[in-house]
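Students often ask what a 'structure token' actually looks like in practice. Rather than answer in the abstract, let us consider Short-chain dehydrogenase/reductase family protein, a protein of 331 residues. Its sequence is given first.
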Amino acid sequence: MAELPLENLTIPTSSSTAEDVVNTFAAEVKGKNVLVTGTSLGGLGFETSRAIARYANMVIITGHNDERLKLSETAIKKDNPTAKIHPLLIDLTSLASVRKAAEEVNKLAEPIHVLINNAAVGLIPFKLTSDGLELHWSTNHVGPFLFTNLIMPKILASASPTYTPRVVFVSSVAHANPGDPVNLDALTNPDPTKYSPPVAYRDTKAANILTALELFKRAKGKVNTYSLHPGLIYTNAFEKDGTLPIFQGAGVLDENGKPILSKSIPWKSIGQGAATTVTAAFDPSLNDKPGAYLEDCQIANDKVAPHASDPETARKLWDVTEKLVGESFAF
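Now compare that with the structural description of the same chain:
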């Protein structure tokens, strides 16, 4: 497919869908190998993968449940029969599982052009993982941090004189909720008596942005990184324990757990939510804007809270996380 001049491309907007964006940037998607975490049916990761599979050379879909992975693979191939889908089991709450999955990726013949860290949990009761980490911090930050760094050789292998690989972190506007600076003590010393689901979610979503910034800095231009807010979308995440009452209390969901539709609550479809992820992964206009934060398929750096863009916090977070996983990463 001939590459269109940038000035002739349709600029994605807040109403664009993932399919719209993939079609716009088809020349960029074509031939790429993309890994997306968290791809269960009904979620953003699945819709992202489904749209990308139309043109990509290979899409690696991930999840911690083999049956759900098979359902996602079947659904994607039903929509795109010729799609090359590689299912990968990974449990981000287990560092051993993360390491095993990374080993499998590193054995593949193909390089990884784009890694999309999409999987996350939100607003759930306090729980420790087998590694002694609080579940939000493990799933949303430590697991993705370790996985990203362990497969970095595969990511760097996709680089060429005309292409810089990308790592995308799906964050949230919730990162900017008011409160104290990011509490790194909750990462290293989880305490149920000091635990708040909204604060844990806020801090881990801020950690996504901080990690994107620090990764780009440490990679010294070898990788372009981006973070984003996909929008307010009704997905399967609302069905998880403890989530429903919080959103009902915030006036977002009604007593039956359904979205409250009003002009003041900007709900998006799953396709519209995945559009910003696809934009971050492939929009060529972002090539010279690494580290950018996106909303509604556009750069929105002005919406990043100070605690999520502070270079010193980013450095501390990286160092603390390296210590937690027991190894350092250099590129």
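One point worth highlighting: The two ends are 33 Å apart (CA to CA). Ask yourself how you might have guessed this from the sequence alone, and why that guess would often be unreliable.
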